[in-house]
Amino acid sequence: MANECEHLMDYLAGELTEKEAEHFQRHLSRCEQCSSELEQLQEAWHSLPSEAEHADVPPELKSEVMNFVFNEASAESPRTMDASEKITAWTHRFIKGFAPITATIIVLLFIVSAGLLYENIQLRSTATERITNAAKTTQLFLLQSIVQTSHAKGYAAVIKTGDDRELIVNLKDLPILKGKEAYQVWLLKDGKRQNAGTLRPAKDGHGMLTYRLPGEYKFDAIGITLEPNAHGTKPRGKKVIGMAQG
Amino acid sequence: MTVPFFFNFEPFTSPPPCDNFKRIIEEGGESLRKKSDQELMKLIEQKHRSAFEELYDRYINLIYSYSLKITKGNQEKAKEIVQHVFLRIWTTKSRYDPNKGLLINWLITVTRNISIDFIRKEKKHEEKQQMMVAETVITQESKPFQNIHIEDAKKRLTDEQQRLIRLLYWEGYSLREIAAMEEEPIGTVKSRLHQSLKRMRQHLKTEKEGRVDGQ
């Protein structure tokens, strides 16, 4: 109980919260010493206001007070508190209405959604980056076999990535090659041929080649020849694949 | 000034309608003046406006003087405090309980609470100025409000004891703040205040008795 008795001065000075004060009042009813002490202290405490010197009340104060009270109290009828008290009351009600666990869940949800939002933004910016850097197909040629013994077909595409341009040749159903034979890709510009690399198909007849186009180089047509080996600088074998007509 | 009885007649909210009826009939300005504090407060609870004005007339001197003292003579602030005190009296749900003492003490407690709220809010803004400026303002002609006993009783206290009481009672410092200012444990501050108040009370008592004997 000694602990409770320590609150006597806080109680007298009005420093306890409403709840604490109620609690202390219950203590007072049980603790004789406290209640008799309090009585004595209050005698002195309540004599303190008489230190105030008598002041003449300004005559206009009464109407000011009455206007203030009745305007405040009736104009907004349920409003009996000032704004800050109202906010406090609201906050209090809000906090009261939410059990701590609910609050925790809300906080967690908030964190999770913030995380998701962040990730989403990250993804979006990465995606945007990709799109701006994205490859664009600037030219596309369908390719097909021009010899009757094969049904090879596929395409050639020029992919532009930033300032770079790349030729991709993708073919399937290519006849299997013998020995060192290789398919060679040629680009045609104004009747001039330009070697764009060689390819050897896999066992399933699938062959692919990429070739980095130099500078501003442009071409009108593309052809593929069957070469005895991959080292030719000029076409030696016959053309086996060309651009599909129509 | 008479108030038509239907104006405040609330048979559903006031349990003894006959009493209520009688009381309302009697509520002329003259009869209000004869009401006890307790009766007045009951009427105010029932939102009786003339009773409220009567309360104002009875206690404005005290409340205003008190507010002026606690604001160190600042009339504008004192007025503002008075307005809020009466607003609280009109609207508060924590009613005056006659079992807990005189109405005057309740009113002063309300006034002190509101004043201290004001003072603390202000302190946050203008920590330094307040003390010096305001202390010089109380120069207006003034007579002792109640009696000189309190002054005598206070003189029996040491300066230190008087200072503690002033800090707590008039300047709105909390016990915790005083402890911090004094660099003492809060328990020590409390027991020093306790002793000071008891000593004051002792002197008030002997003086009062002395006066009674003298008469």
Structure characterization notes:
Chain B: Belongs to the sigma-70 factor family. ECF subfamily. By secondary structure, chain A is of the alpha+beta class. Chain A has seven helices and eight strands; from the N terminus they run H-H-H-H-H-H-H-E-E-E-E-E-E-E-E. Chain A has helices spanning 2-5, 8-12, 18-30, 32-47, 61-75, 83-97, 100-133; strands spanning 136-145, 153-161, 164-172, 182-189, 192-199, 207-212, 221-227, 239-243. In chain A, strands 5-4-7-8-1-2-3-6 form an eight-stranded antiparallel sheet, with no helix packed on it. In chain A, strand 2 (153-161) and strand 3 (164-172) form a beta hairpin. In chain A, helix 3 (18-30) packs across helix 4. The radius of gyration of chain A is 46 Å and the shape is rod-shaped. Chain B has two domains: 1-143, Rna Polymerase Sigma Factor, Chain: A (Orthogonal Bundle); 147-215, Winged helix-like DNA-binding domain superfamily/Winged helix DNA-binding domain (Arc Repressor Mutant, subunit A), CATH 1.10.10. Chain B has twelve helices and no strands. The interface between A and B is large, with 39 and 60 residues.
Write the topology of this structure:
The complex is a heterodimer of chains A (246) and B (215).
Chain A: H1 2-5, H2 8-12, H3 18-30, H4 32-47, H5 61-75, H6 83-97, H7 100-133, E1 136-145, E2 153-161, E3 164-172, E4 182-189, E5 192-199, E6 207-212, E7 221-227, E8 239-243
Chain B: H1 5-8, H2 17-25, H3 29-34, H4 37-45, H5 49-70, H6 75-91, H7 103-125, H8 129-135, H9 149-155, H10 159-170, H11 175-182, H12 186-214
Helix pairs in contact in B: 4-5, 5-6, 5-7, 6-7, 9-12, 10-12, 11-12
Membrane topology (chain A): Single-pass membrane protein
GO molecular function (chain A): sigma factor antagonist activity
Keywords (chain A): Cell membrane, Cell projection, Cilium, Flagellum, Membrane, Transmembrane, Transmembrane helix
